[in-house]
């Protein structure tokens, strides 16, 4: 807590001073950094303000950064002034500014330094509260062979590992349990979503393959020699980067059709176009490919007055050779090998029947038919892409072939069960391995009944078992099964968390998120939940990762938010949570309120109220008073949710701090809609209510990259935000009036 208070003192000059000697009034509330963030909607990006990284970040090296020894915050000098670096700047620099400089001799050293500064800033802003990081146990039916020789780990889950396994079951099958409900959206699980379910992603990975760059079992990247015959990396005269890729000529999709270079370009050409943007209701992420921004993305068809149909960054060089070019500003990307990552896809699925890819020497382009519109002016192929990605009928799954080791043959939405069959034409993964198990069945698995289901033969694998009771039961079952059941285990690369909609309600204020962490006994919560099979972390990291070890070696220190109601109260009072609902000074009992200037608050926050309506934002003496009430949405049939009832909602420290928690329990998909504040799954009613949610997050990707995920740019904010946080340090005011 010493470090936290030091951070508060460091920011005290930027915080408002709220008088508690008189009733609240507009004159008693001064400008605060968080109020600047709240008012961004009143200003135009690129005119009144922009991100600090957009303003100057591309020219900054790690040698330009100086750190505050007390807080660990990072600063640079801009136009003669010291500028604090925020989450957006640090996450961008982490992957784009890794040229060795100063005392850092390698790109890895520089990356680790930016990563350390990001984690330190994150630890202060606390956009979510990690509550447990646990050991994972995978329980297996011993008829599934190869588990010992080819085990799972944080980067290689059962869906990846089973390509090396065999099944001695009579029907040569494996039944996997899904802890999240399957949506049936398997072709492109992320289509129209910012956070697809883990099992949807698993099935997407099992059915999409022949990729040019593969994620390895160790959590790295490498060129897939099973697919790639040759590849060449070229730095061009203008500083841009070109990968030229030649694929082998003996690959096939699941229907036996031959794979050529066009199979690798089709999804990219469609996905980078306005047609796909219309289909997914979100902009595609091709801004790092030459010729997309301001050119290919603006071409709307033969009558287009802007842009060009030629995508200069993608080239079709011959039947089995293609290339991708990345502009100079992105060419130094830390994970630049991923620019060369393409998967084989059926051409007609994304481009439509009769549409072809051409290249006359300047770049790829599509037949004009791809841009055909209906009588309402909507792209015909946009509707086809939407159907391709979201239609969960068996007919749709069979409409086009698959490129991965398996094919989806059916999905039963009533019980959330998907059936996959082996793709007989699959050439192999990056190690040349081909699958032997004929059938994969994914079934919804609920922790309360999964052990009984497993014993009855309803599951062959229960992955990622966690929690004391569940882990104890699983180990006891295996140990006493006389070899019928086996298990493996590994430390989790991730954690269970209390997450926030960090731009709405009380949770948008740093002080509230910190106070919640200070009120909770996180080590005890972790012990109670994991039964001793885990612990707690203080930031978004996996302790087994190379960058964590490097950052610790560089001296990273994080606040552990040791439990203290007194410290929580001090944090809240420092931030102005010092009022009653009627505008009189807080009496020390009941719910605290925070005064917000009338010109800073938005409509959603004006209407903020508790789930039961007993507390709401009040308008008193020209200011708005927001109640310290947290509306929390928890998922059903979840021990984590159950433990939060006592660890969070009924926590005596919460009440002592002047906070009240209201709880709604429901299914996972509706919870995500409430988090997104949009009907991604068809449940959101249009009025925001919840600002806290419990679920989990993982760091098992081979790339630790949050570039654009902390953006303050409104054109990307809704689609890319992972916490819906706007760090005031990332705002660079361009006009004096805006400041």
Quick structural gist:
By secondary structure, this protein is of the alpha+beta class. A hairpin with a 4-residue loop joins strand 17 and strand 18 (417-422).
Structural class: alpha+beta
The helix fraction, in percent, is 25-40%
Mean pLDDT: 92
Secondary structure tally, helices: 23
Question: What characterizes the major β-sheet?
Answer: 8 strands, mixed
Give the terminus-to-terminus CA distance.
Answer: 32 Å
Q: Low-confidence parts lasting 5 or more residues at pLDDT below 50?
A: 4-21
Overall outline = globular
Cα gyration radius (Å): 27 Å
Description:
The structure is a single chain. This protein is α+β, with helices and mostly antiparallel strands and 739 residues long. Helix content is 26%, strand content 21%. Strands 5, 20, 21, 22, 23, 27, 28 and 29 form an eight-stranded mixed β-sheet that branches. A four-stranded mixed β-sheet has the order 8-19-18-17. A four-stranded antiparallel β-sheet has the order 11-12-14-13, covered by helices on one side. The longest helix has 19 residues, at 107-125.
